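User: Structure please.
Assistant: Input sequence and predicted structure:
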Amino acid sequence: MSDRSASSARSRMDTPRTGRRFRLSFDPEAAGRVTEDIARFLGTGRYLLIQTVIVAAWIALNVFAVRLRWDPYPFILLNLAFSTQAAYAAPLILLAQNRQENRDRVALEEDRSRAAQTKADTEFLARELAAVRIAVGEVATRDYLRRELDDLRELLAAHLDEPSPDAGEGTATRHP
């Protein structure tokens, strides 16, 4: 194939490209973790201390070091740096808050699901316990059987103590 036919094949819409192009891959989860780490760092005392030292050094150098003055008194460049920092910090903090809100929502849904399952389990166990109580009420207990046996013994004893109609008068027959 000549160079002309190869270039015309490349320009045709129905021919797929064979060359590999560089593609930028973006992992939103990894980017979210990085922005959360930055937002967490922006809220620490360490960051405030570092920023205070940098600002103090910036002002001191621009006020006292005549040769190093790159940002004279109204410190316009320092204000620009603060504005840029605020322009990036606010979205990073909002992104971190949104991710935390999503995690909280998922945790809340899991807690609700777990609470509903716990409630259903508790209601089931309460019904089972009620059924066991009813069943136990219908089952002969040891005390019930003891009372019944005592009543039968007294009945037998009374029956054995009374005279038999076949026996003579005044004699009581005992059956073994």
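The chain has a mean pLDDT of 84.
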